[in-house]
UniProtKB/TrEMBL annotation, chain B:
It is found in: Cell membrane; Secreted. Gene3D superfamilies: Immunoglobulins. This is IGL c3501_light_IGLV2-14_IGLJ3. It comes from Homo sapiens (Human). It comes from the Eukaryota. GO terms for biological process: adaptive immune response.
Amino acid sequence: EVQLVQSGAEVKKPGESLKISCKGSGYSFTSYWIGWVRQMPGKGLEWMGIIYPGDSDTRYSPSFQGQVTISADKSISTAYLQWSSLKASDTAMYYCARLRGSGSYYNPVGFQHWGQGTLVTVSS
Amino acid sequence: QSALTQPASVSGSPGQSITISCTGTSSDVGGYNYVSWYQQHPGKAPKLMIYDVSNRPSGVSNRFSGSKSGNTASLTISGLQAEDEADYYCSSYTSSSTLEVFGGGTKLTVL
């Protein structure tokens, strides 16, 4: 069974750094793109970026380029989303999700498997 | 403002059919057959319902169907059930540097 298990909720202060994780299991972690999706309170889904763990090829939405860093450690089947300096506006639920199809060529065939979400709260 | 436009809300009675639209441009919806639809219940992660415009993943009810005409994609739910009440999001590949964009979401109410 494919599973994506995300790290727990975080409460941080503005200016602090943070790295949240997404551990994949039940499939070949290096063969599928994993993306990150933001959902601000009461709002819709936003595509942040995506990584291919096999070779760490990473793409970002321009809205998030330079604001976050997406990475992966294939030795422990885990993808990461990190911030160097959080803002109150980063308060949101963050989901990782795996593309339906495999392969290093980016083929946007939908996110079929999702993590449970990590709630990040940034408040002074 | 979302790149893809969806109605904020739709409603229908049990047993009826409803359609949710998702309007983009020739750079996204109209240019590629890479439209997906997601269902999200409150407090839950989204669930993929349709991919590649009209394909259903294994396990998704055949009451859900997708189509596209020009720059507008549509999700149709037939035989509405109470459990279908949720938020629905479309997404599409885009030739812009964004790569993929979501619609603003549609809240479906089953009356």
